[in-house]
Automatic annotation (TrEMBL):
PANTHER family xref list: ALANYL-TRNA EDITING PROTEIN, THREONYL AND ALANYL TRNA SYNTHETASE SECOND ADDITIONAL DOMAIN-CONTAINING PROTEIN
Any Pfam family the entry gives: tRNA_SAD
Gene Ontology CC entries for this record: cytoplasm
Protein's name according to its UniProt entry: Alanyl-transfer RNA synthetases family profile domain-containing protein
GO biological process, one term: alanyl-tRNA aminoacylation
Gene source species: Spirodela intermedia (Intermediate duckweed)
Family, similarity comment: Belongs to the class-II aminoacyl-tRNA synthetase family. Alax-L subfamily.
Amino acid sequence: MALRATRLAFFDDPSMLDAPTTVLCHLEEEGARHAIILDSTLFHPQGGGQPADTGFIAVSGYPGLKFIVEDVRSKNNGVVYHYGVFEDNQNTHGIQLKEGQEVHLYVNAQRRNLNSRLHSGGHLLDICMQNVGLSYLEPEKGYHFPDGPFVEYKGTIPSDQLLTKQKELEIEANALIATGCKVSAAVVPYDEASELCGGILPGYISKDSNPRIVRVGSNPGCPCGGTHVADIADIGSFKVTKIRAKKGFTKVFYTLDS
Ligand SMILES: [Zn+2]
């Protein structure tokens, strides 16, 4: 059967961590691992430098049956695959969920919160780079996993400024966290999106699309499909652990207090 793109319900209300939906397809993979495709999902797939949400899926009509969601990936034009196993506390061998089966999704709140804080930390860092006189560095990519998050920028900081800038960035980030600032996200028409982002959008965004634009306060926005804190204050505290500049690129590593 042709699979249609999964509706990303976490865009509607990022604070919603549980919701009902229905199964479109259930694939049995090698061993005990399964893949479930749903009509809509609250699970953020791995992507944009952000790890996947985890959690579980309860199946209506099967009391106590839990499908443990271990990994979530978006592929084939937006079809979201929920990979995992049935909890091993009952005989689940041979279970086959049919199209239309009602289920209830439960996202692991702790992991979502950490992912959102780490990812939002990347946006915060981008703003701080502007505020400490490093706006000539262009953000290239972010890695927002807990094991050493960083943002990589095109361009380099002179080596004699690395330590000063590391300190300035950290002071600026914590000052912004202390003040607090709302984070907003909206799916808008291309022209409006371009305006929100200071008049230019990256070339990979189709002019026919309605991009999702994320903004921290009144700072220029950027296209982003990640999950975010509601307010920059929710990041807690921010430490710039290292700046590495080489071969025309600068990586700024950071951590958050847990
Ligand atoms: Zn984002």
